[in-house]
Design a protein that fits this description.
- By secondary structure, the protein is mainly α.
- It folds into three domains: about 200 residues, Clc chloride channel (Orthogonal Bundle), CATH 1.10.3080; about 200 residues, Clc chloride channel (Orthogonal Bundle), CATH 1.10.3080.10; about 70 residues, Regulator of K+ conductance, C-terminal domain (Alpha-Beta Plaits).
- Helix content is about 65%, strand content about 5%.
- The protein has a four-stranded antiparallel beta sheet with strand order 1-6-3-4, with helices on both faces. It has a two-stranded antiparallel ribbon with strand order 2-5.
- Helix 7 crosses helix 8 and helix 16 packs antiparallel against helix 17.
Amino acid sequence: MKDCETTRMLHYRQHAKLIVLAEGILVGGFAGLVTVFYRHILQAAEEWRTSIYSYLKQGDILLIFLWFSFLVLNAIILGKLVLNIPMIKGSGIPQVKGALIHQFTMNWWKELISKFFGGVLALGMGFSLGREGPSVQMGAEVGLGIGRILKRSNLDKKYLLTAGASAGLSAAFNAPLAGVIFALEELHKNFSPLLLTCVMSASLTANFISSHFFGIEPAFDFHNAAIFPLENYWVLIGLGIITGITGKIFNQYILNSQQWYQNISEKYAFFRPVIPAILAGILGFVLPEVLGGGHKLVEHMSITRMSVIFLVIILVVKFIFTIICYGSGVPGGIFLPMLVIGAVIGKIYGIFFVEFLGMNDAYILNFMILAMAAYFTAVTRAPITGSILITEMTGSFSHLLALILVSMVAFVVTDILASKAIYDALLENLIHAMRKQRFIGERGKKILLEIPVSIGSALENQPIRDVEWPENCLIVGLIRGETEIIPNGDTVMYAGDLLLVLTDEYRVLDVKPNLLGMGAEAL
């Protein structure tokens, strides 16, 4: 039986490209529809919230009291929902990463519905959170659900889960290429032809559906942005340093906020969202600009002159409010809030150069765009995703060179400061909080791993027989370009090869880290 299962897995790979292409389109279609519906509901909730505050500002004390009571009640409902289904807390990206490494088992339909409802509640109340994290998780749940319905193998389910996550990000931001790069750079940190085929088909399909409902325009309307002159590129180094340092601070406080909320007894843990809910109610009257993800705030800043003092207030309040909201554990992402914080930093930085060094004020918008990419990179440590994401969100490739430069400076700064990628750190916290230090897979069940061979790794230029492989694994295939080789002991591995390794599912956490370490570039 085991031999038949292994034979079936290998046979499937030989005819898999068209299958994963079709399945990627299927996943992208359903994930795109879920994300589109989610975006529509959130837009309606934001419009409703804005009109409510406009009416409440007339000063009716009774109505204001009823509104705050409504916020507290919704927050308690949200808190109970997160306690009952802890996999929906936060952005959802750490949960997706955890599922890919067998740390979590996902109940796809239950978590999909709960994440949707919880995200609408949190963002509808004005929490400083984004739609993209929940969109990624809901897309991944759709992919996993389709994989289970079609009774695919564990490896195929990983492909579909990743494809769904990519589709969710693509539809959330109208950024199909960023969705693909995010899946490869952040979720898998490597890619294979099959994975790329599945992810790209899903991302493009989701973007097609999203564009049908929201139009093909980029997420931010920055058509009036000038091309940043090459002779001024030196000023971008300072911007990269500032965003790198502030990104490190942001990560630290995001992680600390989760610890602060732990001081609230588990017995009353469902009250945690009440804190940001009351704060959101107050800010709705005194500084409504910081409510929600902040998409409209970025567009407003791009066309409006603002004083540095007001921008600093926006920056500080948005920073603190985001940390308080995310730390409470409610469903919601940090993608969009971190882009907003980056944009505010960029605008302040740009105003400084305009007022004190005589730079053309048309370039303030450029500083906003570049700071968004740099801040995203500093927080996530994913410079390629950050550069491509902002390029697609602004609809212009004319900023790409400057984006890459400032992103790489921010990346180097965070590396020097030993800042860990936020989603990796959040995953570690989540594993600890859920007491899921280890996932024990089914005994007797096989799983096929894909291990890349990198330049300078211990595997490069080595025959298979000369490598001391971990126990309980078998090298069953080697992909070189478009050719799949059945290896033997004399087969030499080269940089760029992809190894197919068969192992027991319950041993994957022992085997996979060792294999990835052997295939990684030596430092």
